[in-house]
UniProtKB/TrEMBL annotation:
This is SCO0930 family lipoprotein. InterPro entries: Lipoprotein_repeat, SCO0930-like. It holds the Pfam family Lipoprotein_15. Residues 1-25 form the signal peptide. Keywords: Lipoprotein, Signal. It comes from Streptomyces hintoniae. It comes from the Bacteria.
């Protein structure tokens, strides 16, 4: 098989204190206290579909059986409700690409433990099914001399935690692994609004960011008379602040109190109903909810800004 490949707002102004006071009085704030970083989930914390504890090997599939050597077969196009068209192998397993690789020229940077978590797809018997341009299929020689399938120049992989056809647990892992679209590009959630909602099977309707990552609230924050974040220093390393999102770049999220504020360190942070919002470093992929209930102070956010499942104040 011959190698072929193909080349692949912030918009929110400062708000006057008076406007803040008017917009942010929608909910009584709990008393501020010392920050709770919450490095581990509290007992009873909810874990979402495909979620896992933070992986120790950095690749997201410790101890999982690989699929090395499994043939690609006839590639197919699968329709995913959130990602659109994705590429699968002959058994329906999702194929992925790695941001650390290159397509021009094709080169794989995934070896050793990485290749155990993300088994390379052999190029030998790969054929193009309906909706796939066979000219985009190629191969690259790995460091061990084996031939790996490329799509649009990008080396293709499976994910060890995808155990059945249709699984797409590997999407967004580490911010570097993405499902392959039929043309070799990323089947990403980039087309999603800056903030939107999804229906979680355990939590109900919750807010997610543009990458599909769950958004959280910290019960020790304040919203009235103006937003105040109690998460600073090392807390922010585990709970990154969500950057400002334009009001017209949201879907399904309450508009009232949808604003940003400036933190003491000068960084601007987004709020929903004036409550500061965050993501969780322990969520490895879109759909994870590992931050739910951590420390009894961190909870996913409902479309109206309320913390989902939090004890009543």
């Amino acid at each position: 098989m011959k190698t072929t490949w193909r080349s692949a707002s912030l918009a929110a102004s400062a708000v006057a204190v008076l406007a803040l006071t008017t917009a942010c009085g929608q909910e009584t704030a709990p008393a501020a206290g010392s920050q709770s970083v919450g490095a581990t989930a509290a007992a009873g914390g909810v874990v979402g579909v495909g979620a896992s504890a933070s992986p120790s090997n950095g690749y997201g599939a410790d101890g999982q059986p690989g699929a090395a050597g499994q043939s690609a077969g006839k590639l197919a196009v699968s329709q995913n409700a959130e990602l659109g068209k994705t590429l699968t192998d002959g058994t329906g397993r999702t194929l992925y690409r790695f941001d650390a690789d290159t397509a021009e020229p094709p080169k794989s940077s995934c070896d050793g433990d990485c290749a155990t978590a993300w088994p390379p797809v052999p190029a030998d018997d790969a054929t193009a099914g309906a909706g796939i341009d066979k000219a985009l299929l190629g191969e690259v020689t790995r460091t061990d001399g084996s031939k790996q399938l490329t799509v649009g120049g990008w080396p293709a992989y499976r994910y060890a935690k995808d155990t059945k056809a249709g699984d797409i647990v590997g999407q967004g892992v580490g911010g570097k692994w993405f499902a392959l679209a039929p043309d070799g590009k990323k089947a990403t959630l980039a087309a999603k609004p800056g903030l939107s909602t999804r229906n979680d099977p355990k939590l109900g309707e919750i807010v997610v960011d543009k990458n599909g990552m769950t958004v959280y609230r910290f019960l020790k924050d304040e919203a009235w008379p103006k937003p105040v974040s109690a998460c600073t220093g090392t807390c922010l390393e585990k709970w990154p602040a969500v950057a400002p999102v334009a009001s017209d770049d949201t879907k399904g999220v309450q508009k009232k109190g949808l604003m940003n504020f400036t933190r003491p360190d000068g960084v601007k942070q987004q709020t929903i109903n004036c409550w500061p919002i965050y993501t969780f470093s322990g969520d490895a992929a879109a759909g994870d909810t590992n931050g739910q209930g951590v420390g009894g102070t961190w909870y996913a956010v409902a479309p109206d800004g309320k913390p989902v499942g939090a004890p009543k104040q």
